[in-house]
Amino acid sequence: xxxxxxxxxxxxxxxxxxxxxxxxxxxxxxxxxxxxxxxxxxxxxxxxxxxxxxxxxxxxxxxxxxxxxxxxxxxxxxxxxxxxxxxxxxxxxxxxxxxxxxxxxxxxxxxxxxxxxxxxxxxxxxxxxxxxxxxxxxxxxxxxxxxxxxxxxxxxxxxxxxxxxxxxxxxxxxxxxxxxxxxxxxxxxxxxxxxxxxxxxxxxxxxxxxxxxxxxxxxxxxxxxxxxxxxxxxxxxxxxxxxxxxxxxxxxxxxxxxxxxxxxxxxxxxxxxxxxxxxxxxxxxxxxxxxxxxxxxx
Length: 298
Ligand code: HEM
Hints:
With 298 residues, the protein is of the alpha+beta class. The chain has one domain (6-296). It has nine helices and twelve strands. Strands 5, 8, 9, 10, 11 and 12 form a six-stranded antiparallel sheet that branches. The chain has a four-stranded antiparallel sheet with strand order 2-3-1-4. A hairpin with a 2-residue loop joins β6 (219-220) and β7 (223-224). α1 packs antiparallel against α3. The longest helix is centred in the N-terminal third of the chain and has 17 residues, at 29-45. The two termini are 21 Å apart. The protein binds protoporphyrin IX containing FE.
């Protein structure tokens, strides 16, 4: 299989940055391609930075690439008064991560500068690892993530156009921590589906059907709908939450989990986590393999 962008699987970094761009309608494909090339080179020049670049279908095709089967713009899910996932599909995503916030910030400045002539940043979000990889709710995030080679199996497109690349889902979630923290710990554990201190999955009757784990741990025809998550917390004392960032071999894996979270699957249940956090952005992307990216940015 073609080699994936290595930054997808590089783990253990504590400093993160996401930049989502809207490309100017009049930008020529040659200028766009040059800007992205320069952005990637500039970002990689900062010390020890992982650079992952992903595209909406139209942006990738504008550069001359072939989009994988099934790639489409993210659409709103759910209806008020139930939980709603906002759709804010953008054109180009850069995810930068490394060991130090200052180096990652230098990389973000390089990307911002290189992209300025052709695109506007619509999301510009610095993030961090919180304690031992916890979400700001205090729960460990990533416990059930695939490990070793299972990461590639979950994340990478195995055949057809885009082989070695990945579908990507990003959503900026804003937490209402006051409400979450007002619950006692055992109720919080019922919302997530794991214990808070040690991240042990609840079992049997202790696991509510509307916990986050119950809504996202899904099998279809015996196949576990595994995805590979790389989300990171962001924010300040005022506004804070999780930048959800995840990779999958098939876009349908995201669809099925989101439908079950937002109350539009056949059982009508929604994920209780959506009562304490709101998805204010949402985009689907394609992160091409290194080879496909190099061929387009030549
Ligand atoms: C506010 C946003 C979110 C927060 C705070 C959050 C947090 C968590 C936590 C604490 C866990 C349990 C530990 C773990 O296995 O990682 C978890 C599991 C999981 N989450 Fe989320 N998550 C969020 C959004 C999402 C979204 C949008 C999806 C899918 C589209 C998702 C998919 C999953 C999956 C697949 C698991 C593992 C389930 C299993 O197999 O046990 N999460 N999440």
